[in-house]
Amino acid sequence: MGLGYSLFVRPMLALMDSEKAHKRALLGLRFTSFTVIGRMFLRILYRPRKVEADVFEMKFSNPLGLAAGMDKKAEAMQGWETLGFGFIEVGGITEHEQSGNPKPRMFRSAKHKALVNRMGFNNPGSEKMANFLAKSKKPSVPLFLNVGKSKSTSLEDAHLDYAKTVERCGAYVDGFVINVSSPNTPNLRDLQKDEDLARIIEEVQIHSGKKPVLIKIAPDLEDMQIKSIVDTARGLGCSGIVATNTTIERPDNEGIMVETGGLSGNPLRKRSTEVIRLIADHTDGKWPIIGVGGISTADEAWEKIVNGASLLQIYSAMVFQGASVIKEIVNGLDKKLKSAGLNSIHDAVGLARR
Predict the structure, then answer these.
(1) How would you classify the pairing of strands 114-117 and 262-265?
(2) Which of 51, 68, 130, 174 could form a disulfide with 89 if both were Cys (CB 3.0 to 4.6 A apart)?
(3) What pLDDT, on a 0 to 100 scale, did the predictor assign at position 9?
(4) The 106-109 sheet, strands edge to edge
(5) Do the bridges between strand 175-179 and strand 143-147 make them parallel or antiparallel, or are there none, so unpaired?
(6) How far apart are CA 244 and CA 19, in angstroms?
(7) Which domains does the chain have, with CATH numbers?
(8) pLDDT tens for residues 22-41?
(9) Distance in angstroms (rounded) separating the CA atoms of residues 275 and 227
(10) What is the pLDDT of residue 6?
(11) Lowest mean pLDDT among 9-18, 63-72, 98-107
């Protein structure tokens, strides 16, 4: 495990202190997964069992995916697949290239097992991203693109910004996540209002090639607002929802908690599960939910599933625990299914609601 630790855990732990460390971690994963021998090594160390799921008319080898933000530019897709993720979400990508917010903009709290970031959608833009994806080998697991709004684009024209990214990159991915919930682009969360959201969804779907379109929402909304967003998105034919993005709430005012930006990790776990349950209850479990927020163990993953999540995503757990957390969570879910006498993840989804 020594090489695995040096490749993933150590640089990931330094992630919040230096973006260079994040780049080195991605580079290390790309390098290791470039050769057949490297991929074989990673599979032996990290590959989990198969715990198949069937969602969005797609097959997933397991329900655990990589959340957006970890691999913004889709640099290590083959590596993430080799490590054992059931699906990958890259981005967020905006129509126009942008450098994001001033540094420092990434922070880590070992005490809280939490991250704060105010990256501000730093990304190469949709044109460069499309060109890169066209030349890259597409992973065999489902690939989703997180789509955001360029800072320079007005809220009135946001729908065109989202749609242009989808139009340019659509041929190279399996689905899209409309991100209207990042706290790091001024006024972006205003687009969660019904009329603005409807305009974005309708425009994106024109260019989506009938591929799944999902909405990613903030955990800081009132319950009634969440229900309204769900009704709007579902009514317009969205395939599902990602619950949730980062929060602007804080567990206390110590250390990095005074920094502005979105908080992810352990403090978000309870609220994200509440939102998942709220959506599952509101839709009678008939609308797929990707649960994300504070998952670092199989127990926490199971909690999201039995409350209504069909699929899961992690980010912070990779920073604090390294790549071995994928195997621990997926194999742990397999054990839970067997001990509950269930045949599939589908049978466990929403179990706490029955």
Answers:
(1) antiparallel
(2) 68
(3) 53
(4) 106-109, 114-117, 262-265
(5) parallel
(6) 24
(7) 47-353 (3.20.20.70)
(8) 778 888 899 999 999 999 99
(9) 10
(10) 43
(11) 9-18
Read off the pLDDT of residues 119-145 as tens digits, 9 standing for 90 and up.
Answer: 999 999 999 999 999 999 999 999 999
Q: Can you give the pTM of this predicted structure?
A: 0.95
One-letter-per-residue 3-state SS of the chain: CHHHHHHHHHHHHCCCCCHHHHHHHHHHHHHHCCCHHHHHHHHHHHCCCCCCEEECCEEECCCEEECCCCCCCCCCHHHHHHHCCCEEEEEEECCCCECCCCCCCEEEECCCCEEEECCCCCECCHHHHHHHHHHCCCCCCCEEEEECCCCCCCHHHHHHHHHHHHHHHHHHCCEEEEECCCCCCCCHHHHHCHHHHHHHHHHHHHHCCCCCEEEEECCCCCHHHHHHHHHHHHHCCCCEEEECCCECCCCCCCHHHHCCCEEEEHHHHHHHHHHHHHHHHHCCCCCCEEEECCCCCHHHHHHHHHCCCCEEEECHHHHHHCCHHHHHHHHHHHHHHHHCCCCCHHHHCCHHHC
Give me the mean pLDDT over the 281-298 stretch. 98
Q: pLDDT tens-digit profile of 30-83?
A: 999 999 999 999 999 999 999 999 999 999 999 999 999 999 999 999 999 999
Active-site amino acid positions: 182
Report the pLDDT averaged over residues 256-274: 96
